[in-house]
Known about the structure:
Elements: H1 2-5, H2 12-19, H3 23-35, H4 40-44, H5 49-61, H6 65-77, H7 79-100, H8 103-110, H9 115-128, E1 136-137, H10 138-144, H11 146-149, H12 165-172, E2 182-183, H13 185-196, H14 212-219, H15 234-247, H16 252-261, H17 263-276, H18 279-291, H19 293-310
Antiparallel strand pairs: 1-2
Helix pairs in contact: 3-6, 5-18, 6-7, 6-17, 8-13, 9-14, 16-17, 18-19
Amino acid sequence: TLKDLHRLPTGTALHAEAATESKIGRRFENMLTDFREHSLADINLVTSPRFRGLLTGTSVAINDEKVTLAFKVLYEDLGPVRVAGDLIFSKLERELVKSKATNLNENVRALGREDSCIEATRKIFDAVDADASGTVSSQELLDSDLLRSLGQCADCTCEKKGTCKSVGKFMDEIDKTHPEGELHFAEFLVAAHHLLYDGDASVSLFGGEDAEELVDELLNGREPGEIGDKKADKYSKRFDGMCVEFDSWDSEDSSTKAEERNPRLALVLEGCFAGAKQPQVVEALKILYMDFLPLRMAGDLIFKLMRKLAN
């Protein structure tokens, strides 16, 4: 509760606690250790955009010392955050295990591609998937000019009207069992491997780590998955508003005052400032805030605490 958090240890008591990690703290560290066993490729092969966003943000967060320490303090000191955290980590773990067990993902792994290639292909796929449906249709592939950008349409005369032979060949590369005629991510990657790169795993898919230039060309000014002026959810607006206010607190003066008032809570504030500079972390927190009521309530509480501490 708010009252309990203001009783958090300060000064020498804080250092005494730091010397001997709590049982709850060790549990938190063990969860992070288990999560680090999953690669970025494992994350990018997850089908659900929401879970993939959570997984990506978590991956970034646990590699930032200040963000990790902030979450650890909250996990140790706030029972509701701890319960919700256990639930979320369990859900994420199940989602990764389920994803790894699919035949399509096993087929991707069998290609011998490096993780950077799978990550690059996910960026390209999301750029082509204009309606953010999680699949790519022949029309989206045609509209994106992806194949033309990669030299597949040198002799094409379709002028992006009617049936395109290059697009048709790409879509037909996979023997699909679903009738809608659209490619899921793993199918898209396998088709690209065989058709665009002749099955040669030594050549990076879409430039590997340098795929951003092609992504920018495909997006042509729009955001990935942008589908128009869809009315924002009220929790989305509330979260965005809190982020705007929070950014206004980020100063050396705020950090100094927080350290004087409550050194332990100051660790949380510094972690929040660090996390706010990581777009993937912010996006993951936004998903949690919108989708999970217990974490939305905890988020509101933490925000009020940080507001009081910083001001």
